[in-house]
UniProtKB/TrEMBL annotation:
Gene3D superfamilies: 3.10.20.130. This is Staphylokinase. InterPro entries: SAK, SAK/SK_sf. It comes from the Bacteria. GO terms for cellular component: extracellular region. Belongs to the staphylokinase family. Potent plasminogen activator that converts plasminogen into plasmin. It forms a 1:1 complex with plasmin, which in turn activates other plasminogen molecules. One of its GO terms (molecular function) is kinase activity. It holds the Pfam family Staphylokinase. Keywords: Kinase, Plasminogen activation, Signal, Transferase. It comes from Staphylococcus aureus. The keyword Kinase applies.
């Protein structure tokens, strides 16, 4: 499930669309391009083709949080967003419950030219 808060070049919040769920399977490689695609997909669910993703901050990460039944606590791991990407681990195991992925960034979202007023 993805929730995105988009900002303009000055850091002002432009859009916070509803959550959108994506099927991310173990073994999938999440590249910067694929993450930007998912972000635009989330934006289009609220404001179809009104915004586009210009850039993610170079320090942006994907945070994965899950409940580890063996440790009886939530665990969090962060992965940098790169052109090469990272492979989604097999978080669905007997001792792991409810993995969630979070984008640690507010992407820069200019309006598409056809929507400028």
């Amino acid at each position: 499930m993805v929730n995105v808060t988009g900002v303009d070049g000055k850091g002002n919040e432009l859009l916070s669309p509803r959550y959108v769920e994506f099927p991310i399977k173990p073994g999938t490689t999440l590249t910067k391009e694929k993450i930007e695609y998912y972000v635009e997909w989330a934006l289009d669910a609220t404001a179809y083709k009104e915004f586009r993703v210009v850039e993610l901050d170079p320090s942006a990460k994907i945070e994965v949080t899950y409940y580890d039944k063996n440790k009886k606590k939530e665990e969090t791991k962060s992965f940098p967003i790169t052109e090469k990407g990272f492979v989604v681990l097999r978080f669905i195991r007997a001792h792991i419950k409810n993995p969630g992925f979070n984008l640690e960034d507010d992407p820069l979202l200019p309006r598409r030219p056809s929507f400028d007023i």
